[in-house]
Amino acid sequence: MNRTKKQDMTMLLVILFLISFGLITLYSTSAYNGQVKFHDSAYYFKKQLFAAILGSVLMGVISRMDYHVFEKFAVGGYLCSLALSTAVLFFGDSYNGSKRWLSIGPLSFQPSEFAKLAVILFLAHIVSGRKKKQTGIGTLIFVMILILPIVGLVGTNNLSTAIIILGIAVILVFVSNPRYLPFIWIGVTGVGFIAIFLSMEAYRLDRLKIWRNPEEYEKGYQTIQGLYAIGSGGLFGKGIGQSIQKLGFVPEAQNDMIFSIICEELGLVGACILILVFLLLIWRFMVVATHAPDLFGSLIVAGTMGHIAIQVMLNIAVVTNTIPNTGITLPFISYGGTSILFLMAEMGLALSVSRWQKESFRI
């Protein structure tokens, strides 16, 4: 295994572009809410900027390390994520009706964000270790059994993240052993899992009703205002900073619904360019995963690719009312310090794998 002198520069540049674009968009989107709530138009921007700088340093450090070092912490990290997710049920803080945060002194974070990274490392370790004795459906069942505890704990208060974790698990098993038939069973199981969790809480069933007829329900207000923003942006948008819907019409516009403000200010063209940038990042993940020197490295990058792809698709689908509202952020763009920190750690791992490719494989 020969380490190359440079990491994947295309991937790095795309990541830095998304972070920079996210900060500009966040300031534009959150200035009104920051001024109204905290008398500081840059309140959200400054917190996100601090998290982005810290995350960039973390990404840089991790990208310079040998990613095999992290395999030693894979099991411990997963057990830690189980413990933190359990703690949320008993000691978690609620925000907008969802108990997803843990507070340690003045600091608060979402353990579900750490769980995504922990699951990627854990499953990469487990699946790569079982490669020689895989039996297709047997490995799939084994992985699902291992991952169900964290899915259940996270899904109690955060169904969308639980779906992402399940998606990551399926992708990693498929990458290591691409047989189609077992995934029919996992699809059926996944539908059953979602149905069970929807029926556990009345508000989740209400979201289905709101999704079908948002104009008939008070809680459909956010969806309708988001669609107004998308429609009013037209082809080229109103210009950065010129959104009307961010002025209190779209609740918490800097979070889950930030894509609607992007559509309003940059139009269909700007939104499509952003999607193309995400596709470029996913393509680089595919290249690095394909040419990784071992299965462990390949699975790390494939898991990161799955995480980004699923989360982007879910967020855009929610904002456009293609699926019911699940409260999921847009990677690199939406406000959230915890999300940025652990996301940048994932990017560091992917960049670390890219440094260990053979020179002849680089594109």
Structural class: mainly alpha
Number of strands: 3
Beta-strand percent range: under 5%
Order of secondary-structure elements: HHHEEEHHHHHHHHH
Shape assignment: globular
Neighbour order of strands in the largest sheet: 1-2-3
Mean pLDDT: 85
Compute the CA-based radius of gyration.
20 Å
Poorly predicted regions are: none
Helix content: 55-70%
Tally of helical segments: 12
Q: Descriptors for this entry?
A:
363 residues, mainly alpha, 3-stranded antiparallel sheet, 4% strand
Describe the structure.
This protein has 363 residues and is mainly alpha-helical. The chain has helices at residues 9-38, 43-63, 74-91, 111-129, 137-155, 159-176, 181-200, 202-212, 221-233, 258-290, 295-319, 337-354, and strands at 93-95, 98-104, 107-109. A 3-stranded antiparallel β-sheet has the order 1-2-3. The protein is globular. It starts with 8 loop residues before the first helix and ends in a 9-residue tail after the last helix.
Task: Describe the protein's topology.
Layout: H1 9-38, H2 43-63, H3 74-91, E1 93-95, E2 98-104, E3 107-109, H4 111-129, H5 137-155, H6 159-176, H7 181-200, H8 202-212, H9 221-233, H10 258-290, H11 295-319, H12 337-354
Antiparallel strand pairs: 1-2, 2-3
Helix pairs in contact: 1-2, 1-10, 2-12, 3-4, 3-5, 4-5, 4-6, 4-11, 5-6, 6-7, 6-11, 7-8, 9-10, 10-11, 11-12
